Amino acid sequence: MTDSLNEKRDKLCTILDRHGKRGLVVCYSGGCDSTLLAAMAREAGVQPLLLLTFATPTISRYDLEAAADIAAGLGLQQRVSRLDTLLLPDMAENSRKRCYHCKLALYREALSIARTAGYGCVADGGNADDRAAHRPGNQAIDELGICQPLAEARLTKAEIRLLAASMGLPNADRPASPCLASRFPYGSRLDTELLQRVEQGESLLRELGLRNFRLRVHDDLARLEVARQETAAALLLGETINAGLRRLGYRYITLDLEELASGSFDRV
Q: pTM for the complete prediction?
């Protein structure tokens, strides 16, 4: 690691020591960011330490199972809290403020759990890149006073992956996996059936060997975004993908000629 990254790592330990003096609840998705945060909190000697995972209709079973496996492998205590975020009007309507309202509900629950169990602080895995991007959820995080140690240490996503790899974390190179609501255009009303269908579609694609992709849904059209290096593989699998997605009820199946883009529906 570079001297600069070592300095940020040391700064992160100092930040975690400060925030974790009376225990820490890490809002944990099983992604690289929150996993590194949890692992570094343990290394910094934070006690007690709890990994809190939210199970909602927009989180896939694949992600929940991966999060549980990683937490168990690291020997860290995990708790799963189930919330039906589709009861939130802005979430069900997939509004542009959905992330704000969802984070507000989830992190209020996290604060309640922390207070009841006697933990002094709730932390989120947001990083320096997240703070610079369009993320309405940041507003909720700021309003509730949730700490973001990775962002405080000015760690970027690339630096977090380097640190995770240096610690041998199993998901150091795992692609980002945002919630399933991001697969639908803003203003598209969401329900459990639609979310389960796109989850099943992405499970099929994963079983076929694709790794870094999103299945975007426009009514009965399924639009596959893949990382540039997987475009050729997706084309070779075209007939199998087409048949599988049609069985799920999609009428039209397309491959986006642009490569996978985070926040695809935020384009103007």
A: 0.93
By residue count, the chain amounts to 268
3-state secondary structure of 223: strand
Which among 205, 191, 208 has a CA at the least distance from the CA of 253?
205
pLDDT of 192 above 60: yes
pLDDT at 2: 82
- The answer to whether residues 158 and 198 belong to one domain is no
**Nearest residue to 120 (alpha-carbon basis) of 97, 101, 147, 92:** 147
- The answer to whether residues 20 and 149 belong to one domain is yes
Q: Give the mean pLDDT of 51-77.
A: 98
CA distance 115 to 130: 27
- pLDDT, residue 267, reads 57
pLDDT at 268: 45
pLDDT band at 263 (very low <50, low <70, confident <90, very high): low
| Residue 161 to residue 58: CA distance in whole angstroms | 25
Which residues on adjacent β-strands are paired with residue 252?
221
**Residue reference for tokens 């959820």:** 137
CA trace torsion 185, 191, 195, 198 (10° rounding): -60
Residue 94 lies in a domain: yes
Structure tokens at 210: 């694709």
Assign 3-class secondary structure to 68-134.
Answer: HHHHHHHCCCEEEEECCHHHCHHHHCCCCCHHHHHHHHHHHHHHHHHHHHCCCEEECCCCHHHHHCC
Domain count, the chain: 2
* pLDDT digit string, tens, across residues 114-144: 999 999 999 999 999 998 877 889 999 999 9
User: Helix 157-166 to helix 3-19 angle, to the nearest 10 degrees?
Assistant: 90
Which range marks the domain in which residue 235 is found? 191-266
